[in-house]
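Write out this protein's structure.
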Amino acid sequence: MKKNYKLFRMGLTLIFMHALIPRMAMADGITFKIIDGAASDALKATIERNTLHLMESLTVSADVGAKKLKIDKTRFTPEAVKELGEIWKGSAMTCPAVTVRTRLLQTRGGYQVRGIPVDILEADKDEERQELTVDFLPDGRISDVSISMDLHRYEEIMAQQETPLDYVRRQIIVGFVEDFRTAYNRKDIGFLQQVYGDKALIITGRVVKEKQNSDQVSMTMANNKVIYIRQTKQEYLTNLAGVFKRNRFVNVRFEDIEVVQHPKFDDIYGVTLKQYWHAGAYKDVGYLFLLIDFKDEDHPLVQVRTWQPEKNNIGQVITKREDVFHLGSFKIVR
């Protein structure tokens, strides 16, 4: 009788302890496996568990309509927790029932996995499915989450490296561009404040419709032109803060990304890409050019940003890819 009472007490204790353990997010049909690249089996297992936890937590939190993302914060750095919270404010995300098998990439600060599919619920149906890049510290904790560029394009950019230093910089640029894009989704003015140089040249193209003369009733290209507006860093960020304030969700996508190293200054790179912008009722598509300066290797800065509209208001192409600003468009003085 005494023995049975002891077992009964143990059973109660186990039940009580179980009640104190936070429930981990679980979602059916999601699996994540690393097939190569881990330094040890222990690290591989830690990163698999943490990534699966992220994927499941996104789905479970979205399914219950949680205003705040429910995660085990011990699996993340404080910075990653904050960034994920900001992304979640803009839109909940879910992971489809999928098996992800991927390589673990080594980065300057640790490790990275790419190509994790998510559905961004605030986006239009045709813009919903996107992918995440997840970065890890050497101990396997998640240190950064951003929206990915296409995996095939990433591999093409990295394959163009000419030296080990060029490879590292290209990897930094890809991460930089993905964080840059995600900063718009999470409406992170603070991040953008840090990445633009204080004297950055910011140029934005805008289609202007000219008044028609009385004898020019049917005009197409002739009555549309692009004017270029130069802004200071502070002017640009102030205007952008207004856009963020007026819109619950800002969806920015990048395609056709090209990275070019300057032929004379090997620490300067040009990044050209096609940008899709959607905020509220406003949409546009155009070409973005960024001149990124690696003079301080640990803190690369955007010294030039230009945007040119691809088409006018009636759908005619006014900026071709070959007409986009590039490294040769600007005189660099060192």
